[in-house]
Amino acid sequence: MSVHLNHSGRVATLVLAVLASACSTPPPPPPRSYVALLPDVSGSVGQVTVKGQLGEQKLTQASQATLLNGSGASFVVSPEQLQKDFGAVLAASPVLPEQFLLYFESGGAALTADSEKLLLDVVARAQVRKSVDMSVIGHSDTQGKAEANEALALQRAQSIASRLSGLGIASTAITIESHGERNLLVPTPDETVEPRNRRVEITLR
Questions:
Q1: How far is it, in rounded angstroms, from Cα 157 to Cα 180?
Q2: CA separation for the pair 196, 45 (Å, rounded)
Q3: Cα separation of 137 and 185, whole Å?
Q4: CA dist list (Å): 178 to 60, 86, 135, 148
Q5: Residue 179 parent element (H or E)
Q6: To 10 degrees, what angle do helices 146-166 and 113-127 make?
Q7: Hey, CA dihedral for 42, 185, 195, 168, is it positive or negative?
């Protein structure tokens, strides 16, 4: 039996396999082992392919499940059944990290309009976690000297960290770094204006 997970970007899909308990009414049904596809903490759902001795099934929707041996059609598992079968595993599982990209206007630490809205989503996601460890990493494009871009990226990271603190995130939970133009999201030659490289990366753990 094999389970192949396929996803892109920040999508992370939780795949769980359990041996379902037999009911107490005699005669008990044969125990079934199955895989269920669940959304990540942001609500995103990827897909998983389950290959077993008796067939292959692809899961693409939340709460969709299939037997580990690959036999039969996929089926939907109710929230109650998922909690019964996976409750202990879910309770023990660490919360997956979340990453956000905030973009800036050229030459400074002013966020774009879309990123201003996303900043509030970052705060909301941080507040639902029992504890939060947040990294804020500033970046720049390659326009200008590398030393100046290092300083600009740090200014961006410090600006966002300060705003997050003002919105209720404990400053002790935030670490700040500058990568300048060293880790480009979009590879470009020197002296290239690229809006997607003018960013701060925020990771919640």
A1: 10
A2: 25
A3: 13
A4: 38, 41, 11, 11
A5: strand 174-180
A6: 50
A7: positive
| Residue boundaries of the structural domains of the chain | 2-92, 98-204
CB 102 within 8 A of CB 161: no
Question: At 125, which amino acid appears?
Answer: R
Write out pLDDT tens, residues 13-62: 444 544 433 334 444 444 468 889 988 766 788 888 989 888 999 999 99
* H helices present in the chain, as ranges: 79-92, 113-127, 146-166
| CATH code assigned to 98-204 | 3.30.1330.60
User: Model pTM?
Assistant: 0.64
Strand order in the sheet with 33-38: 14-19, 33-38, 64-67, 75-76
In the predicted structure, residue 8 carries a pLDDT above the cut 70: no
